[in-house]
Amino acid sequence: MSIEELEVFLDIATEAALAGGAELMSYWGNLQDIQEKGSPGNLVTEADKAAEKAILKVLQRHLPDHGILSEEAGKLGNLTSRYLWAIDPLDGTTNFAHQYPFSASSVGLLIDGVPQVGVVFNPILDELFRAAQGLGATRNRKPIFVSETTTLQKSLLITGFAYDRRETRDNNYKEFCQMCYLTQGVRRSGCASVDLCSIACGRADGYWERGLSPWDVVAGIVILEEAGGKVTAYNNSSFDIKSGKILATNGKIHDLISKALIETPSLAHWDTDVSALL
Ligand code: IPD
Ligand code: CA
Ligand code: CA
Q: Is the pTM of this model over 0.85?
């Protein structure tokens, strides 16, 4: 893929994410229609649908031959194409419904299955993250880079908890306890795409989460990797988008987090520790 072609796709992705973000802002603080889908607490609103419509309109106008995977609309367009757009029109719907300002439109492009273009726009905080493979990553058009932190003791981490957390033992609770113990802190912002961008711009050092879908991560992966970060599975093997499990860091603490996640004690260990304090 030539740099010129990637630049064109990055501009189209930017136009789409800005269009999605503009729709989101028209509903900010003014949501009438909030519904649940699938697992309890998994919300969908009129803002998700309006932002998706605006994003799809831009992509379909410029690139009618490409494939699209969009959270609410599903699979669209030419799915045999080597180009597949992964769209989350409103990432952070729960935040949005509560007016907690971590929400974004996320527009990513996989070429032959590899994330190569990504734009994440949080219209509430007016943060526009952009990247394409080989072109670097920016926040509001200024270059960004991952942090220099090299130890867990000095790290600030981010994680999240999927909607199926009440139905599975693989719910991330024990990993959360382990990381709270080992680091300066763990944040849960409720917006996976922005979480990846937070690692990319160095305001946190590492992020892990399970239960994610391609539309949550494709754009953020490109932004993080172009900012110098690293993305793998928890055990440091190659990231598998179908697994929904991601470890994304500044690169310098990657092996340390991977080891800590793999060696996380069972919750019984933490229960014992906590009860001893009561
Ligand atoms: C969710 C957010 C959240 C993450 C969930 C995602 P949604 O996306 O990214 O941070 O923990 O796993 O599903 O539903 O708000 O688009
Ligand atoms: Ca999402
Ligand atoms: Ca969403």
A: yes
